[in-house]
Amino acid sequence: MVPASGLIAFPTGATARLAMVDYGHGTTASRDDVPSSFGMDGGLGIEGRWSAELFASAGFAVALPDYLSLGVSRLRPQYEVARTEASASLDLLRATQRLAAATGHRLNGQVFLTGFSQGAAAALAIARSLQAGTLPGLRLMAVGAVSGPYELQAAELPAILDGRVSPAMASYLLGYVLTAWNPVYHLFAGPAVAFRAPYDARVESLFDGAHADQQIAAELPGDFRQLLTPRYLRELERPSARLLAALRANSTCNGWTPRVPVRLIADGPIGEIKTRVGTRTIRATLPSIPIDELAGLPGVRAADRHGDSVILTCRDADAAARALFIRYDDVRDVEISGARLEDAFLQLTSDPEPAEVSR
Questions:
Q1: Which terminus of the chain, N or C, has fewer Cβ atoms within 10 Å?
Q2: Residues 10-63 pLDDT 10s
Q3: Any idea which architecture 279-338 has in CATH?
Q4: Into which CATH architecture does domain 6-150+252-269 fall?
């Protein structure tokens, strides 16, 4: 039996039956920087504290696992190992049921899953398990995951190799995942196969759960190409069967079809998020033209009017602008701009059929 820990929270004064939220925290290599620390030890675990307070204040019972080998456990961290991330949440959901019964809180059996970064990918692994009926009596309702590495082979690894993930961050991530995966998947015979000197002598000890992320980053090179041997860089570019098996086993968006609403939320610099939306806006002065007519122009997604001014939200702004100038001689003051942040937020988070929460 492996000791495990986490944080459970209930709203005060609740009388109705409670739905549960399971929140997976973001990547950390420190076993103390986890929800069960509750932000009381120099700010460690503050993400878990804020998340617990947020969801409990909204009327949910909240379960926040530390992940296996973090928190009270003294095992080596198992970073991006989907089966143990899922088991940590499933065990804590069971504990939440028992604690609710012991404290007089009533649960309605509904479960909502969310998480950030590592926790986002874990949320999909947990969703797959719950959907398969792993915990009878609990009903998966919806998943909302933020900025997670869901597809490792086709998305995360290529992003590391082509520079979309910063080289310094890639150094940390690859050091963490390779030292965590090797005992599980037997990827290389020893550290010197994958890591250059002098890092081969100390990289495993850095990711032992006792070091803070800042300490680890200070000890690693600023570019993953200086961390890994030429042989292992080639391995990443052309993965072996063992590495491919590990990548596929922990790509949590693959191999199943959700039967509940799933929302994957973007995270990144404001400019990057706005470009993901794929819309542009045309503002122009054009009196008297019916708004429905403008909404029907080529490339226009939606149209709005404020007096003589019109605002066209476009999936193809070039086609819409051509149509405006060809059809309307009196159009003037035309301005074309990229999506606003609020437009990006609304499109990325819109859900025409949200899951209904029973109370």
A1: N
A2: 999 888 899 999 999 999 999 989 999 877 766 666 788 888 998 999 999 999
A3: 2-Layer Sandwich (3.30)
A4: 3-Layer(aba) Sandwich (3.40)
In total, the chain counts a number of residues equal to: 359
What is the layout of strands, in order, in the sheet containing 280-285? 300-306, 309-314, 280-285, 332-338
The band of 341, judged by pLDDT with boundaries at 50, 70 and 90, is very low
Whole-number pLDDT of residue 277: 55
Burial pattern 111-139, b for ≥16 Cβ within 10 A else e, equals bbbbbbbbbbbbbbbbbbbbbeeebeebb
CATH domain 152-243 topology? 434 Repressor (Amino-terminal Domain) (1.10.260)
Compute how many other C-beta atoms are within 10 angstroms of the C-beta atom of residue 16: 11
Backbone angles phi, psi at 125, to 5 degrees: -65, -40
The domain limits of the chain are 6-150+252-269, 152-243, 279-338
Per residue in 318-328, pLDDT (tens digit) is 889 989 988 99
Q: Where are the alpha helices (DSSP H) in 167-288?
A: 167-185, 191-194, 203-206, 213-219, 224-227, 230-237, 241-249, 270-277
Identify which of 250, 245, 269, 276 has the alpha carbon closest to the alpha carbon of residue 118.
Answer: 250
Residue with tokens 């076993």: 31
Please state whether beta strands 6-9 and 61-65 pair in parallel, antiparallel, or not at all (unpaired): antiparallel
Among 274, 272, 278, 281, smallest CA distance to 302 is for 281
In this structure, of 193-207, 259-273, 308-322, the range with the lowest mean pLDDT score is: 259-273
